[in-house]
Amino acid sequence: MNPDVVEGPPEEMDDPESVARGICLRALTGAPKTRQQLADLLAGRGVPDDAAETVLDRFTEVGLIDDAAFARAWVSSRQAGRGLARRALSAELRAKGVDPEVAAEAVEEVDDEDERAAARRLVERRAGAMRRLDRATATRRLMGMLARKGYSGGLAAAVVREVLDDVAVDDAAGDEFDDLDVDSLLP
Question: pTM for this one?
């Protein structure tokens, strides 16, 4: 049984607006929510549409629901923490019910350089573990990782190539020192 959908109302529906306020306040205590997420929750709990709209309008009016602020915070958090590209961020915001225009404004805060730097950090973190693989396999796996995070093929290919070239240069420098006889350098 889905805990969000209750057969009968959990509380008396004598005052559906009061029930809706309580549900929304409890939901907002844990984490910010979009207006659509709260509307879906209220519908699932059997709150009449007119009562839900009244409460949601009031919560929006007083600033408890702010989809634009939610979208900005979501983009900042997910881009920095998970390294998601703008495309993936837009898809996540759409799934949360954020208006497309509001989502687009929030995603615009991530510029091309931010996106490229995030992709590079992701690849650099993974490249070390792929040193034992041939370059084609490492490239395929790194490109797949970036694609799952919403990066375009062109950007992913460029970043992967750069990082793998840097790793190859580092490895070549390290190989030169493998043949070095350290004892011959000591007095």
Answer: 0.73
Q: How many domains are contained in the chain?
A: 3
Last residue of a domain, one of 25, 43, 61: 61
User: Closest by alpha carbon to 5, among 43, 36, 38?
Assistant: 43
Query: pLDDT, tens digit, for every residue of 140-172?
Result: 999 999 999 999 999 999 999 999 988 765 554
User: In this structure, are 54 and 72 located in the same domain?
Assistant: no
Domain enclosing residue 43, as ranges? 16-61
Amino acid identity of residue 128, one-letter, is G
Token couple for 26? 């409890």
105-137 pLDDT tens trace = 999 999 999 999 999 999 999 988 888 889 899
Task: Look up tokens 């983009």; give the residue.
Answer: 75
